[in-house]
Write a structure and sequence with these properties.
- Two copies of one chain form a homodimer.
- Chain A has about 220 residues and is an alpha/beta fold.
- In chain A, about 30% of the residues lie in helices and about 20% in strands.
- The first copy, chain A, contains seven helices and ten strands.
- A five-stranded parallel β-sheet of chain A has the order 3-2-4-1-5, sandwiched between helices. Chain A has a five-stranded mixed β-sheet with strand order 6-7-10-8-9, with helices on both faces.
- In chain A, helix 3 packs across helix 4.
- The longest helix of chain A has 17 residues.
- The interface between A and B is large, with 62 and 63 residues.
- Strand 6 of chain A pairs antiparallel with strand 6 of chain B, so a sheet runs across the interface.
Chain lengths: ~220, ~220
């Protein structure tokens, strides 16, 4: 059988696609990596009693070993004739850890079901006209250095800085120097009940699953 | 009542979210702009007999007038107590024309339902590990000049060039000069039955709804 990487969207269980729900329910095993947010998002759609494979992923240098071991378990299920659905927050191939499994299993039949990214959920939460016409969009992780962040945002019209967390101060400093602080918004837990949307200048703390949106021009005309 | 901008995803009617389907079916009117691709995508989910508002959008200088007129018609429906769902290809706020309506109607109650973007559908079609770890992602429309395209892709790890169409030759030239042609892939009609995924170097013609994916490194490790 095959491996399916399924984007379960940014948080709201209603933001799964019809295809994601169908393929989860047609699978014989669901797998999930790391902390379990993807499982929490998909939980209302899991058939009772469906076998689950929880693959813990430690932060840091042991991650490679965890992916090796997870890939080994998944391969065994597929070779035994079962379809394995890997649940992925947002989209599987946009900053998702699914691709580390894919790199280890791409000799098997694989399908990827795209999902709604947290970037889209954040712009929807703000009702922010993110990109139009000739705009360019830069998605960049807050984990980069100040110099790298500055270089990458320089020529973009619209900017989303992902994985803000403890990098909040750095992100704010970079956007302030670029003259973008007045238009920057912080969105945490987009599409979940605990969602917040605030001007970046007013935010003191940021969870890992939060992002900053900034824009070089006013709203679309 | 209110205006809802609904992302209907990249093409496959199964890539609507559960929320998109529910809110379409709870609305009293569906509206769609331009050529009708969004309507075609959502067609299997429209209740029979649902009133529709087709808003033609001419290419070029008359577009502003068309949005004015479309916004006027939608406002009348909402002020008469009806909920209007505007169907949008992909995501409403990522290169969608919904934002031109939003700019004219944002004094009314508005909700935006995020959708799966064609970028996500294209990376899923290629099973391409698009962005991981510290990667940065640049989304850029092929309509920009060669010089602008070059400047914008310079510091991105992963690149998606949208709206390729008649700009195919220019996009290929820019990526070749950047040393990215060997890793560039052209995806047309992502997620639809007519989908194609080909090395960019082998493509001679591109529809408007196609994009090019390029990457500065190999696959995720």
């Amino acid at each position: 059988m095959r491996l399916i990487g399924i984007g379960v969207g940014p948080g709201d269980p209603e933001l799964l696609t019809l295809k994601a729900v169908r393929l989860i329910q047609e699978s014989q095993v669901v797998a999930h990596l790391g902390g379990g947010l993807a499982r929490r998002i998909a939980a209302p759609h899991l058939p009772p009693g469906m076998p689950e494979l929880a693959i813990p992923v430690p932060i840091g240098s042991d991650a490679g070993h965890a992916y090796d071991e997870g890939a080994r378990l998944i391969r065994a299920e597929i070779e035994a004739g079962r379809q394995v659905a890997v649940l992925c927050e947002g989209d599987p191939l946009l900053y998702g850890s699914f691709m580390y499994l894919l790199a280890r299993l791409d000799d098997l039949p694989v399908e990827v079901v795209p999902g709604v990214s947290s970037v889209m959920a954040a712009t929807a939460a703000e009702r922010f006209p993110f990109a139009a016409g000739n705009d360019s969009v830069m998605l960049v992780p807050a984990t980069l250095s100040e110099a790298e962040l500055e270089r990458r945002i320089r020529f973009a019209t619209a900017i989303a800085v992902l994985k803000v967390g403890r990098h909040l101060g750095k992100v704010r400093a970079v956007l302030a120097r670029a003259g973008l602080l007045d238009h920057a918004v912080h969105v945490a837990w987009a599409s979940l009940p605990e969602q917040t949307v605030l001007p970046l200048a007013e935010v003191d703390e940021a969870p890992y699953f939060s992002l900053v949106l900034a824009h070089r021009r006013g709203r679309a005309a």
